Amino acid sequence: MTTSTRILLGVNIDHVATLRQARGTRYPDPVKAALDAEEAGADGITVHLREDRRHIQERDVLLLKDVLQTRMNFEMGVTEEMMQFAERIRPAHICLVPETRQELTTEGGLDVAGQEARIKAAVERLSKIGSEVSLFIDADERQIEASRRVGAPAIELHTGRYADAETPTEVAEELKRVADGVAFGLTQGLIVNAGHGLHYHNVEAVAAIKGINELNIGHALVAHALFVGFKSAVSEMKALILAAAAKA
Ligand SMILES: CC(=O)[C@@H](O)[C@H](O)COP(=O)(O)O
Ligand SMILES: NCC(=O)COP(=O)(O)O
């Protein structure tokens, strides 16, 4: 996840595993989805090993670690169990995310400002294994400054509020919040990624924000893949974001 003029696509395969877990079958295999995604142009593969194991399982992460041609972005809550697992697998990238068991999905960003000492200790510990650590936060200057202070080289701005915005005014406000967050993150010397809730119909405006390094996208890709196949779903998304970034 190094800063470049070319925007990267991280493909999140969590919800391939959601379908498998719904029946306790061996299919569909998120590992196969990851390999297809890479063939279709994914720059990296994102997985979130949730505490409740509702989708991705340890087995998936271990296999991916062996077979990925690109790099793994391992999303995890800040718990001792996850810290030890990350130390075992040493992913190229780790994104620290907030997690609550009852939530339908990751509803907001990590409160870095409210627990700086704890996040700083986690960033230091995970940096020691050679992982590039990012913090999944809201596009909020207080959280961005705190992310710099705790020593994270990267942040991922939560785009869920933009994705959920309903009126054109709300969409414009939320997009501006993300764009301002990107600009502010860059002034802090951070690598700035973004993701959550991005879809074929809303991704272009985000991809056009100057300075974004990578977009992480999952749910929309898996949903579209049902109708067009995983490779096509990924290559369509990649073409959209590259075109939007090139036009900007
Ligand atoms: C942290 C994040 O935004 C994604 O990884 C998201 O968590 C996907 O999985 P869920 O839908 O389980 O939240
Ligand atoms: N960190 C965001 C992510 O990996 C994908 O989120 P979504 O596209 O599944 O909402």
Sheet with the most strands? 8 strands, parallel, barrel
Q: What is the averaged pLDDT score?
A: 96
What ligands does this structure carry?
1-deoxy-D-xylulose-5-phosphate, the ligand NCC(=O)COP(=O)(O)O
Helix content: 40-55%
User: Structural class of the secondary structure composition?
Assistant: alpha/beta
Q: What is the global morphology? A: globular
- What is the overall number of helices? 11
Oligomeric form of this entry? single chain
List the keywords.
binds ligand LD2JLWAY; 248 residues; transferase; 11 helices; 8 strands; binds 1-deoxy-D-xylulose-5-phosphate
Short note summarizing the structure:
The protein is an alpha/beta fold. It has eleven helices and eight strands.
Protein model, in words:
The structure is a single chain. The chain has 248 residues and is an alpha/beta fold. Helix content is 48%, strand content 16%. The chain has helices at residues 14-23, 30-39, 58-67, 80-89, 116-127, 141-149, 160-164, 168-187, 203-207, 219-228, 230-247; strands spanning 8-12, 44-48, 72-76, 93-96, 132-137, 154-158, 191-195, 214-217. It has an eight-stranded parallel beta barrel, surrounded by eight helices. α2 (30-39) packs parallel to α3 (58-67) and α10 crosses α11. The model has no long low-confidence stretch (mean pLDDT 96). Residues 12, 14, 48, 50, 75, 97, 105-106, 136, 196, 218 line the site of 1-deoxy-D-xylulose-5-phosphate. Ligand LD2JLWAY is lined by residues 12, 46, 156, 195-198, 216-220.
